[in-house]
Amino acid sequence: MQHIGGRWRWRRGPLRRRWDVVDAWLGLVTALALLLGVPVVGFSVGLATYGSQRVERAEQLAERQALTGRLTESVPSDPSATGFTAGAGQVPAQARWTGPDGRRHTTTVQVDPGTRKGAAVTVWADPEGRPAQPPMTTAQAADDGVAAGLGTGMALGLLVLLVRWTGRRYLDHVRLAGWEREWAQIGPRWGRHHI
């Protein structure tokens, strides 16, 4: 046979059926969707998510202010002494600061192991001087964009493959039913021949 793979479905001939052409088109559309559509959609969603996270970060920076506080306790050099895993990046510690209204506040901040009592730390507060979470970093915004893009791309890829699988099952069912109908017409004729 000179034809390779499924190329015979694209050529005219007595064995080619309408469902074979539909199957070939379904395969082509699936391949194009996986090679072009999934990456484009994933990249677009990731970029849009990153952009919206950057806007949210800018809003957080506008709403919150960084104040200088002082640690009220020393943090051991070994995080496991405080119940944290050795090798942890930062550990929680208590810090005190004076808000814009002159009142003293205490909150928990993340510091490096080994930081001493009285060390200056950055404390984030809302406009009323209440403790607030630190604003999102650019790296966190990028991580959210990558996660959204990859998640969307994988979900779309799985959906495309599911549509392809469902389409193939349906086409196989239709082809089998057609073969059974044709065999019901031709099969009885074979039994009449005597040699």
UniProtKB/TrEMBL annotation:
Residues 72-110 are annotated as: Disordered. Coiled coil: none annotated. The chain crosses the membrane at residues 21-45, 145-165. Residues 74-83 have a biased composition (Polar residues). InterPro entries: MT1774/Rv1733c-like. Keywords: Membrane, Transmembrane, Transmembrane helix. The keyword Membrane applies. It comes from the Bacteria. PANTHER family: MEMBRANE PROTEIN RV1733C-RELATED. This is Proline rich protein membrane protein. It comes from Streptomyces ochraceiscleroticus. The lineage of its organism: Bacteria, Bacillati, Actinomycetota, Actinomycetes, Kitasatosporales.
